[in-house]
Amino acid sequence: MCEELRSYLRSQFALGRTDYIRPCNDTNSECLIKATQDAIPEFVKGLPHLGVPPLDPFTIDKLSIPLSGLKVTFYQGKVSGFRKCIVDNVISELEKRHFVLEFHCNLTIKGGYDAVGKVLLFPINGEGDAKIKLTNLKMKLDINTKYIKDDKGVNHFAIKSYKYTFDYGDKVTFDLQNLFKESKELSNTVLSFLNENWRTVSEEFGKPIVDYAVELALKTIEKFFLVVPYEELINVPIPT
User: Fold this and answer.
1) Structural domains of the chain, count
2) How far apart are CA 33 and CA 192, in angstroms?
3) Is residue 237 part of a domain?
4) What is the CA radius of gyration of the chain?
5) Could you list the residue range(s) of the whole structural domain that residue 134 is in?
């Protein structure tokens, strides 16, 4: 994309973004929580013309999850629900270059899968449709930021490093069709076991999916930061 077109698209986005980006005049958490909450439904739509992909839904092209005695691979998964996330807390420490975001969501993952290995001593060689629902997933992102200038001297946020913690919340529901190709009854039995023991299963099974989602979300936020100047995100001068 030529620089002239990129600049034009940025300017067009700038003209229309104030309807959902409402910069705070300080780092008061109450304002930051409201501003973040108001922005989420539009932010997750992405800015494809500027290289910022959507987050609701986003696609898991292929993700292999090696478990104890079992390998599960997801294909063409669609993750939805981020647009309805509820922001619980936002902390912005500009001088320390530190940012914290806490939120909770109901998420749904749909796609195809295959699974090879053993569960409960039963050999599995299944494939079919998969649906996983996470109810009230809680997450905390802890981000170290930095300030950069683009080639025009415009200030931007950037991400230096991050870490996160999460809790699966109230419930994780699994719906994996055709776990045992030869036996629908056995498939239903194992599926019932997975759902009755959802927390134990999720703690072994779910982290690679959450890792994938968080990495994608942070990359998207980084691209967003490169498009939107610092001054459009908060009305506080960059600390010297």
Assistant:
1) 1
2) 39
3) no
4) 21
5) 25-232
Angstrom distance (rounded) from CA 44 to CA 52: 10
Torsion of CA 5, 6, 7, 12, to 10 degrees: 90
At 5 the pLDDT is 42
Asked whether residue 93 is domain-assigned, the answer is yes
Helix (H, G, I), strand (E, B) or coil at 30: helix
Where does residue 9 rank: exposed (0-12), middle (13-18), buried (19+ CB within 10 A)?
A: middle
Residue 126 within any structural domain of the chain: yes
Helix (H/G/I), strand (E/B), else coil: 169: coil
Convert the pLDDT of each residue in 33-77 to its tens digit.
999 999 999 888 887 777 778 889 888 888 888 776 778 898 898
Please classify residue 96 by burial: count the beta carbons closer than 10 Å to its beta carbon, then call 0-12 exposed, 13-18 middle and 19+ buried.
Answer: exposed
Supply the pTM of this predicted model.
0.82
pLDDT at residue 136 in the model: 94
* Domain-located, residue 227: yes
Find the mean pLDDT for residues 112-140: 87
Rounded CA-CA distance 180/14 in Å is 53
Q: Residues near 183 by Cβ (< 8 Å), separated by ≥ 6?
A: none
Q: For residue 99, give the CATH number of its domain.
A: 3.15.10.30
